[in-house]
Amino acid sequence: MRHRDMNRDWIATASTLSQALPYLQRYEGATVVIKFGGHAMIDDAAMDGFARDIVLMRQVGVNPVVVHGGGPMINDMLKRLDIKSEFVNGKRVTDAATVEVVEAVLSGLVNKRIVQAINRQGGRAVGLSGKDSNLMTCDQTNASLGFVGTPTDIDPAILRTLTQAENIPVIAPIGAGRNGETFNVNGDTAAGAIAASLAADRLLLLTDVEGVKDKAGNVLTEITPTQIRELTKDGTIAGGMIPKTETALAAIEGGVRAVVILDGRAPNACLLELFTDHGAGSLIRTPR
Ligand SMILES: Nc1ncnc2c1ncn2[C@@H]1O[C@H](COP(=O)(O)OP(=O)(O)O)[C@@H](O)[C@H]1O
Ligand SMILES: CC(=O)N[C@@H](CCC(=O)OP(=O)(O)O)C(=O)O
């Protein structure tokens, strides 16, 4: 009995691999930008699973570009330093002291943790922030948010150099201001702007919910720009989901072929989305 069950498992595994062929062919040479949110990095196992998926993508000829968040890790450090922090529409109000902590945590602790996790799985990850090689120049979003930036100029040349050499860029969402300022950029916003600059085939926004939910709490497997606007207006899309859906709309308008908002805590979330017919999360694509 036990033998027969094991056989069945192996057959299912082989069948999944075989079914992946058309997807592997479709995504060979494609650019996929993955936003890894702070809430998706729940523990070492989630980090290692994510790293493994990214290395597998690279191995089969996809060009993965990782943009990360780290909101909960910034909160921890601010708490340790006794600095108060608040959010307005999913964006952290960032004063001069806060932006120093944000940069240290994102470009230092979080970025290097992801780089190391990918490299331990056999990949070649290179960590950078928007300041490196003029990758992301920003203007202030709104005076009331302090040092929060909106990307205005993205120079993706360094990303192309790295991906052509089969390296995996891992980007902290810190932007350079025109007058030497450091700007805190929401991770989703940064990922969307970078994906648009690369005319990416897919932007995957990994988070801690299964997707965008409607009023009744059901996950919408596909969501149109009109639905997003309506659900935001009536408050169904709120908090941290606002920058995600705003990003999805801007990315689609900016030339990204499709955006998926999905649960990064689910094992192999990225592989499931790209290489199987199950898909995952909420898909937003250019209206046809
Ligand atoms: N309509 C909605 N559907 C799904 N999640 C929503 C919705 N509105 C608000 N949210 C909230 O948005 C959160 C995701 O944003 P956030 O916490 O910033 O994630 P991350 O750290 O992964 O970027 C969810 O955990 C959920 O609480
Ligand atoms: C302006 C702004 O809000 N920046 C975010 C940057 C980190 C981030 O986006 O992290 P998650 O993806 O984990 O939420 C912050 O300070 O928390």
TrEMBL record:
<dbReference type="InterPro" id="IPR001048">
    <property type="entry name" value="Asp/Glu/Uridylate_kinase"/>
</dbReference>
<keyword id="KW-0028">Amino-acid biosynthesis</keyword>
<feature type="site" description="Transition state stabilizer">
    <location>
        <position position="35"/>
    </location>
</feature>
<dbReference type="InterPro" id="IPR037528">
    <property type="entry name" value="ArgB"/>
</dbReference>
<feature type="binding site">
    <location>
        <begin position="70"/>
        <end position="71"/>
    </location>
    <ligand>
        <name>substrate</name>
    </ligand>
</feature>
<dbReference type="InterPro" id="IPR036393">
    <property type="entry name" value="AceGlu_kinase-like_sf"/>
</dbReference>
<comment type="similarity">
    <text>Belongs to the acetylglutamate kinase family. ArgB subfamily.</text>
</comment>
<feature type="domain" description="Aspartate/glutamate/uridylate kinase">
    <location>
        <begin position="31"/>
        <end position="262"/>
    </location>
</feature>
<keyword id="KW-0418">Kinase</keyword>
<comment type="pathway">
    <text>Amino-acid biosynthesis; L-arginine biosynthesis; N(2)-acetyl-L-ornithine from L-glutamate: step 2/4.</text>
</comment>
<keyword id="KW-0067">ATP-binding</keyword>
<dbReference type="InterPro" id="IPR004662">
    <property type="entry name" value="AcgluKinase_fam"/>
</dbReference>
<dbReference type="GO" id="GO:0005524">
    <property type="term" value="F:ATP binding"/>
</dbReference>
<keyword id="KW-0808">Transferase</keyword>
<feature type="binding site">
    <location>
        <position position="184"/>
    </location>
    <ligand>
        <name>substrate</name>
    </ligand>
</feature>
<dbReference type="GO" id="GO:0042450">
    <property type="term" value="P:L-arginine biosynthetic process via ornithine"/>
</dbReference>
<keyword id="KW-0547">Nucleotide-binding</keyword>
<feature type="binding site">
    <location>
        <position position="92"/>
    </location>
    <ligand>
        <name>substrate</name>
    </ligand>
</feature>
<dbReference type="GO" id="GO:0005737">
    <property type="term" value="C:cytoplasm"/>
</dbReference>
<dbReference type="InterPro" id="IPR041727">
    <property type="entry name" value="NAGK-C"/>
</dbReference>
<keyword id="KW-0963">Cytoplasm</keyword>
<keyword id="KW-0055">Arginine biosynthesis</keyword>
<feature type="site" description="Transition state stabilizer">
    <location>
        <position position="244"/>
    </location>
</feature>
<dbReference type="GO" id="GO:0003991">
    <property type="term" value="F:acetylglutamate kinase activity"/>
</dbReference>
<dbReference type="InterPro" id="IPR001057">
    <property type="entry name" value="Glu/AcGlu_kinase"/>
</dbReference>
<comment type="function">
    <text>Catalyzes the ATP-dependent phosphorylation of N-acetyl-L-glutamate.</text>
</comment>
<dbReference type="Pfam" id="PF00696">
    <property type="entry name" value="AA_kinase"/>
</dbReference>
<protein>
    <recommendedName>
        <fullName>Acetylglutamate kinase</fullName>
        <ecNumber>2.7.2.8</ecNumber>
    </recommendedName>
</protein>
